[in-house]
Every structure is written in C-alpha cells, then in structure tokens.
Design brief:
The protein is mainly alpha-helical and about 70 residues long. The chain is built from three helices and two strands; from the N terminus they run H-H-E-E-H. A hairpin with a 6-residue loop joins strand 1 and strand 2. It starts with a helix and ends in a 12-residue tail after the last helix. The mean pLDDT is about 85. One of its GO terms (cellular component) is nucleus. It is found in: Cytoplasm; Nucleus. This is C2H2-type zinc finger transcription factor. Keywords: Cytoplasm, Nucleus.
C-alpha cells in the first residue's frame, strides 16, 4: 500500500476539520447576552438605551420614555 500513509493523514485532517465545524453554529446564547435591557411596556429585549428610545418612540407613543438611570 503506497497510499496508506496519505490516506491516514487525509482522514486525520478531515476529522480535525469536522471537529472544528461541529460547534458554534448557533449564536442564540451570544445574542441573548447582548440583549440585557427590556422595554418596560412590552418586555421586548433590546441592546442599549438608544435602542429603547427609538423603540418607545415608534411603538409606545403615549408612554413617557423612562430615564437611562432606571435601567
């Protein structure tokens, strides 16, 4: 078997690539960590105060926008 060593090396390389690809496809956990604040009216998760202000202006026109210190 002339290609015995090459076959083994190719198989090991493919196995390492498969192990690297196996994890990390889902970003749900990372995304949930970034969305720490919630809208006080509808409880929609948002990233920061600036986004809350935009959300409140668009979705909750009659509600007053709470100050940043309340979050």
């Amino acid at each position: 078997m002339v290609r015995g060593k090459q076959k083994e090396q190719a198989r090991e390389k493919a196995q390492k690539l498969a192990e690297n690809r196996a994890g990390g496809k889902s970003q749900l956990e990372t995304r949930s960590k970034g969305l720490q604040m919630k809208c006080p009216v509808c409880k929609t998760p948002v990233a920061n105060y600036k986004v809350i202000v935009q959300h409140m202006e668009a979705k909750h026109l009659k509600q007053t926008i709470p100050p940043e210190s309340s979050f």
